[in-house]
Structure formats: C-alpha cells, structure tokens
C-alpha cells in the first residue's frame, strides 16, 4: 500500500481584505463524473467555542468522507470573519493530527514545490482573495476519510446596545452525520443571551460564573446559526489583540 507523508505549511501573505463570514466550501478537484463531484461529504463536525472577556476562540474539527471507489483530491475554502485570521490548522496524517508550521509565502512556495518534486504530499493553507483561506486535502482515500482542524481567535466589539456579540454561521446545506457544538463563556457575572441558536435544545447553563452550552446530534442540519450577546460589565477587562 502506498504511504503518503505530509509537511504542513502556512504561507503568511502580508495584505488583507475583509469580507463577512460565510460558510466553508468544499470542492472535489479533477472529478470526471457528477457522481465523483458529489462523492465527498462532511461526515463529522465538532465545534468548540470559548469566550473570555471580549476574546472568542473557535475551533472546528471537520471529517470528510469519500464514498467513491477512487482516491480523490479536495479543496476547502474557509472564509473568516472580518479582521480575523486563522490561528490553528492541523491535518491528519497516518491517523495522527499534525499541526501546521507558519512560514512566509515565498518560503512556503519553495518548500511546497520541493516536496512535490519528491512525490511527497504537502499540506498547504494559504490566504487567497478576500479574507478567505484555502487548503488542499489529498489523498481522500476511496471509502475513507480525512480530518482537518481549523481554529481562529477574534476580538468581540460592543454594538450600539452596549452588548458584545459573537456569531457563528451554521448554514450547512445538508445533514451532518455527527454534529457537536460546545460553547463556554468564562467569568461572566451576567448571563449571556442567545440571540440565535441552532435549535430549541441549545441553552447556556450556569456553573458559578461560567456558562456552558452543548449539543450532540446525529444526521443533523442546524436550522440557524449561533449568536451570543454578552451584556457589558463595568469591570470587564478588555484584551487588545
């Protein structure tokens, strides 16, 4: 059996354009038939959200399954919220998650081309047009899966109502076989308010000054995104990023 080795690199591009957060888009590359184009599904999605003060950290673990009898290649485009960059990227290699190493764009291109010449598969996360990040996922084994982790941090701002607002889009166009979402709000004297939630089963429950909400679903398609409003405290420490 052919073994694939991967070096994961992130080129840092020193310019930025900002767009509103949208949904990740996955495309099968070089598909020969319509069946192959639709062969890869998001099988498992695990989202962990942690909010401390005015800083929110979101980590998404995504498992893609190839239900065809052919090895495929996929491309995932991941839009980020305005003013936000990816802070974590990991890809499974031989069953273990490997964290990315950030390097400058020119060096990343050099390493990428050198690895390809040695017939080793490089994992590359790059910033493209707008505030979008793109990565290639290869190989997607026949009747097998690959897992990636994407994480980002963002500074929450107060709106006109003096409320910090966190929003996570969940507009997936098909059911996900295994879906989980956990949200933790640390050190909040005032209870956070849910402006929008995936469905009626999600709620934030108090554990001292910490509020936790969690859902685990099978064959699930969220009806809405997640919006959390945090009323301002006079003693709230603001962290500048």
TrEMBL record:
InterPro entries given in the database record: VIT
The source's domain of life comes to: Bacteria
**Which ranges carry the VIT domain?**
26-154
Q: Which PROSITE patterns match?
A: VIT (PS51468)
UniProt keyword Transport present: no
Q: Does the keyword S-adenosyl-L-methionine apply?
A: no
Could you tell me the keywords of this UniProt record?
Signal
What is the protein name for this chain? VIT domain-containing protein
Give the organism the record lists: Pedobacter jejuensis
């Amino acid at each position: 059996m052919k073994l694939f080795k991967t070096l994961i690199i992130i080129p840092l591009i020193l310019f930025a354009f900002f767009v509103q957060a949208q949904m990740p888009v996955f495309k099968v590359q070089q598909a020969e038939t319509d069946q192959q184009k639709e062969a890869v599904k998001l099988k498992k999605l695990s989202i962990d959200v942690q909010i401390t003060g005015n800083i929110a950290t979101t980590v998404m673990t995504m498992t893609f399954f190839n239900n065809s009898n052919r090895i495929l290649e996929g491309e995932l485009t991941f839009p980020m919220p305005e003013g936000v960059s990816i802070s974590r990227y990991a890809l499974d290699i031989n069953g273990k998650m490997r964290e990315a190493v950030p390097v400058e764009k020119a060096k990343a291109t050099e390493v990428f081309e050198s690895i390809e010449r040695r017939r080793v598969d490089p994992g590359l996360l790059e910033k493209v047009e707008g505030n979008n990040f793109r990565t290639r996922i290869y190989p997607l084994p026949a009747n097998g899966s690959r897992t990636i982790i994407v994480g980002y941090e963002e500074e929450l701002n107060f709106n006109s109502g003096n409320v910090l607002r966190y929003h996570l889009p969940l507009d997936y166009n098909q059911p996900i076989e295994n879906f989980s979402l956990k949200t933790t709000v640390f050190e909040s004297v005032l209870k956070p308010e849910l402006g929008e939630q995936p469905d009626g089963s999600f709620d934030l429950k108090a554990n001292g000054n910490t509020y936790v909400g969690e859902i685990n679903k099978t064959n699930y398609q969220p009806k809405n995104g997640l919006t959390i409003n945090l009323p301002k405290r006079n003693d709230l420490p603001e962290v500048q990023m």
